[in-house]
Design goal:
Blueprint: H1 3-6, H2 22-44, H3 62-72, H4 91-105, H5 110-121, H6 136-164
Length: about 160
């Protein structure tokens, strides 16, 4: 198939050293503009909200701050997913630290705050494992597999001893 048949609108300019048609130039300019805009988009995604009041400021009472810090070390950061909210610098973790400190300052117990966070975000948010009935297979499977492996190893060793004697 010839170039003239593939690109009928620019067939006259092909191979003659003539400039590309105007519509191709405008399409390339539009593609370049879209590409540059896509690269710049994350710069505009930054939040303009002020930081949470207790995100990086400790409570005045050391006993309450100790409770808050202990709880924060057991709550997983939703953004980082491998850090506690006490160790994370993510804005979501800052908001959660502030919320925990404010609730503890109001007199709420850490376990009540933990239950609220689990209700809101699910069991995954807590580093402290639960023993819910739905998780029993998860806790029992390793013990069961170790038991089956032990039985199989015992039978194999016993069979080899019989064969050797």
């Amino acid at each position: 198939m010839s170039r003239a048949m593939m690109f009928p609108t620019c067939a006259r300019s092909l191979g003659r050293g003539m400039p590309a048609p105007a519509h191709l130039v405008s399409m390339l300019a539009l593609a370049a503009l879209i590409f540059i805009t896509a690269l710049a988009a994350p710069a505009y995604a930054q939040t303009a909200l002020p930081p949470a009041p207790y995100a990086d400021r400790q409570l005045d009472d050391p006993a309450l701050e100790a409770k808050a810090t202990a709880l924060m070390h057991t709550i997983r950061c939703l953004t980082c997913q491998s850090q506690s909210i006490a160790d994370s610098n993510a804005s979501m973790a800052s908001d959660m630290r502030s919320e925990i400190r404010e609730r503890i300052a109001r007199g709420e117990e850490p376990e009540a705050i933990r239950r609220w966070l689990i209700e809101r975000y699910g069991d995954w948010i807590s580093y402290k494992p639960t023993a819910e009935p739905i998780l029993w297979p998860l806790w029992g499977a390793p013990v069961l597999l170790l038991g089956v492996g032990g039985v199989l190893a015992f039978r194999r060793i016993r069979r080899r001893r019989k064969e050797q004697s």
